[in-house]
Amino acid sequence: MSLTSGKHIVKEIEGTRCTVLESGIPEERMEFLKHLMELNGYEVRVEKDPPKVQKAIPKEVPIVEPGAESNSEKNDLPKEEIKEEPLPDTYTIGVTQISFNPVIVVYQRMLRNKKGQIVTPQYYNQETDDSRGWYWKHS
């Protein structure tokens, strides 16, 4: 669940019911959120998602004209092997406090970073390293 969704998802991670912060995220994002939540006193659980495999798309697809025979013996096109490429590992991260909602906690300015500054939505989403300012912009 990112800050753009208000859904409250509860899932069992490592045998403990947890509120899911985000799922399907890379390791760097998981480490950032884990460190941030532990710094603010929350107990964090992480689960590695099952490995996913992406099938490569064949480069040439034979075009069969109407009225032509579709017998595979007649087609002299070389057949390509479809290779499967493993995708990078993804993770699901959650906190053990069931009533936790990241949208509420971030916009109520309840989280702090390691410098003691209030965590803004931009900092939480890793858009900036600067955690100063409000979540709205002044013109």
Give descriptors for this structure.
6 strands, 4-stranded antiparallel β-sheet, elongated, alpha+beta, 139 residues, two-stranded antiparallel sheet
Compact overview of the structure:
The chain has helices spanning 27-39, 102-107, 121-124; strands at residues 10-13, 16-25, 44-48, 53-55, 84-86, 91-95. It is an alpha+beta fold and 139 residues long.
Explained architecture:
There is one protein chain. 13% of the residues are buried. The chain has helices at residues 27-39, 102-107, 121-124; strands at residues 10-13, 16-25, 44-48, 53-55, 84-86, 91-95. The chain has one domain (10-124). The longest helix has 13 residues, at 27-39. The two termini are 30 Å apart. The chain is an alpha+beta fold and 139 residues long. A four-stranded antiparallel beta sheet has the order 1-2-6-3, covered by helices on one side. It is built from three helices and six strands, in the order ββαββββαα.
Which SSEs are present, and which pair or pack?
Blueprint: E1 10-13, E2 16-25, H1 27-39, E3 44-48, E4 53-55, E5 84-86, E6 91-95, H2 102-107, H3 121-124
Antiparallel strand pairs: 1-2, 2-6, 3-6, 4-5
